[in-house]
Amino acid sequence: MITLNAVVRDVKVNPKMIRRDGKIPAVFYGSGRESTPIAVDGVEFKKAYGEAGESTIIALKTPTETLDALIHDVALDPVIGNPVHVDFYIVAKDHKLEVDVPLEFTGVAPAEKLGGIVMKIMHELRIEALPAKLPSHITVDLSKLVDMQSNITVGDIKLPDGVKALVALTETVAGVSAPQQEEEAAAPMDLSAIEVEKKGKKEDEGSEGGDSEDKAK
């Protein structure tokens, strides 16, 4: 299990000062606990977040105890994208959780060899499981897309033991789309017709000129 160290945070201290010291202001709550302000090391948090995401239990180690927690919410700086505040949700080992777990697509779809284009409709799946059973991701095998009519539904995914999908089993996860038909080439221009049109126009102009000369005489 990933361990992340935390220190108690004085709420009277300006969060900007905490960030200048390389830490991120945070808070933990849940499982009957009051909201508690803490701070975590910025570098350590980024590493933990990259490995655990928001669906894997981590060990949040405070000066007095170690808690099982989920990274529940991460506020990012709108300009540079760095984390500026984090919410940790403390979980009870005997209480099932509902979380969104990322989907990891593997394999090659045979339908692609037929000219099909794989369409990934879902990128995460809402599941329910005990904390110890929460997967970091769920694998989707694209090799099941064998032809242009194939699709993969939630019911086709093999979930780990103790994990239940909270989405209708008929929901489409991935499918195959036929390539767009190329627009019909425009009909070639009839150059002979253009030449005839030009010739006729010149003859008309010539006859108009002749009529003018006759009138002048």
Protein described:
The protein is an alpha+beta fold and 217 residues long. It has two domains: 90 residues, Ribosomal Protein L25, Chain P, CATH 2.40.240.10; 80 residues, Ribosomal protein L25, C-terminal domain (RNA Polymerase Alpha Subunit, Chain A, domain 2, Beta Complex). It contains three helices and 13 strands. The N and C termini lie far apart (110 Å).
State the main characteristics.
217 residues; alpha+beta; Ribosomal Protein L25, Chain P; RNA Polymerase Alpha Subunit, Chain A, domain 2; four-stranded mixed sheet; 37% strand
- CATH topology name of the largest domain, in short, is Ribosomal Protein L25, Chain P
Low-confidence stretches: 182-186
- Lateral arrangement of strands in the main beta sheet: 1-3-2-6-5-4
How is the quaternary structure best described?
Answer: single chain
What characterizes the major β-sheet?
6 strands, mixed, barrel
- State the helical fraction: 10-25%
User: If you average the pLDDT, what whole number results?
Assistant: 85
The outline comes out as: elongated
Which CATH architecture of the largest domain?
Beta Barrel
Q: Roughly what fraction of the amino acids lie in strands?
A: 35-45%
Class derived from helix and strand content: alpha+beta
Number of helices: 3
| Whole-angstrom Rg | 33 Å
Domain unit count: 2
Q: Span between N and C termini?
A: 110 Å
Question: Tally of extended strands?
Answer: 13
